[in-house]
Amino acid sequence: IHHLVEDGRRAEDDFSDSLDLPAMARDTMGIQNEIIPNIRSAVLSRDLNRRVPTLTHAKGIYYHTFCGRSIVDACGGSAVACLGHGNARVTTAVSEQMGKVPYCHSQFFTTRASERLADAVIRSTDGKMSRLLTVSSGSEALEAALKIARQYFLELPEPQPQRRHFIGRAPSYHGATLSALEVGGHLSRRAMFEPMLASKTERVSLCNPYRGMRPGETSEEYVARLAYELDTAFSRFPPNSVCAFVAETVTGASTGTIPATDGYFVAMKRVCEKHGALLILDEVMCGIGRTGTMHAWQQEDVVPNIQVVGKAFGGGFVPVSGVLIDKQVDHAIEHGSGKISHGQSFQAHPSACAAALEVHNIILEEELLANVKAMGDRLAGTLQERIGSHPNVGDIRGRGLFWSVEFVRNKATRESLPRDWNVGYAFHEFAMQEPYNICVYPGNGTADGVVGDHTLIAPAYNVTAAEIDIIVDRLARAVTDFFEGLT
Ligand code: PLP
């Protein structure tokens, strides 16, 4: 369908049809007044997106479509393309690796690329983590993390085979595979598969001050309440039967970027330790520099027992993800079976490791963490300036280059927009179109039984001030026009 559409029509037509506009309006797509009267009906009939554009190439923060449109990538896909699109150093590193050792099975061999990647990543944790397992996607890495947690308890000098449960949070997202869905609290992504899920997980509330804090409650009281809730969740299982508490250090896909309240993770880890369970931090979306430090936990005064990375790990150049384990877990496995019980054909794939290593080196050598902080401040400041007072903008939140705008119906009461409007997704489709041409990552809290429609912004770490201004300008115009047409 895409090819038929893109072959047969002019550039503007690949999106204008989806708004069900009269022919004249389609011909004058740049004139916003022609579009706005249709937004409400397009949103209500869920008719904003019937096709996605075909890309021909992508460079820096721009996607270029077959029809000649240039779309600003404000979110790196799903916070993946951390160096933007196209990087000569990564291309060279991957092609050189393919020329040296294109493939080997990690059970029989290792490569310099995988060894150097592990060294570099472990060094970036200041030695707090001890071993790296490299796989291909965030979901697989999360699966492996759950398995490693169980393996740890089986390989202790006094094994604890009764430990087989997990505690996650709701809402949350940890991946698309069955166990990742099971531990996650993303209701709509789970729904179809619910009967197949193992139901070995309890879920506690997310740390979401905008939605979760009670009037008059202090941060300390809020954290104490969440710690108590976690403690209570442990007690719903038989004693010593929970392997780990699983959480994103800064949330992403399910709720929009929410940094935890100060002291939250310290308190959560204390509860885990009380029950002899591990802390697994999922940094697939927020890790590897996204929040301004190489690891998001480095801003939380806490060290996880197991950590999962993905997305920015390979910058989107290759599919690659990783599981890091701390000394405690590594020691048990080292003195037990000696190896992590997780084997896949593409584990420690040489080209994937070469790409991830080069991405890692570029982040450090080009001092991109400093740019993430500086450009993150600019992004936050200009977002606040341009749309902070908009009546449908409830919350602007984030850290580093990981920001979200939560939309509401009523700013004062924080009432959400109607659930069936799917505003997070609808706004994404709207912003992708002329004249905005900006790709932001959608999130529909309300569609998930949780309040919080939002749009997520996660530009490349090497984004410039001028590019931040372009992103904010397009986003602000899209927000203004979208809500003018919708409400
Ligand atoms: N964990 C988190 C926090 C994520 O945001 C995602 C994907 O969005 C995953 C895990 C799954 O990663 P992948 O899509 O690479 O399998």
UniProtKB/TrEMBL annotation:
Keyword Coiled coil: no
A GO-annotated cellular component: cytosol
Protein name (record): Secondary metabolism biosynthetic enzyme
GO MF entry, a single one: pyridoxal phosphate binding
Top-rank lineage group of the source organism: Eukaryota
Family: Belongs to the class-III pyridoxal-phosphate-dependent aminotransferase family.
Organism: Recurvomyces mirabilis
Keywords carried by this UniProt record: Pyridoxal phosphate
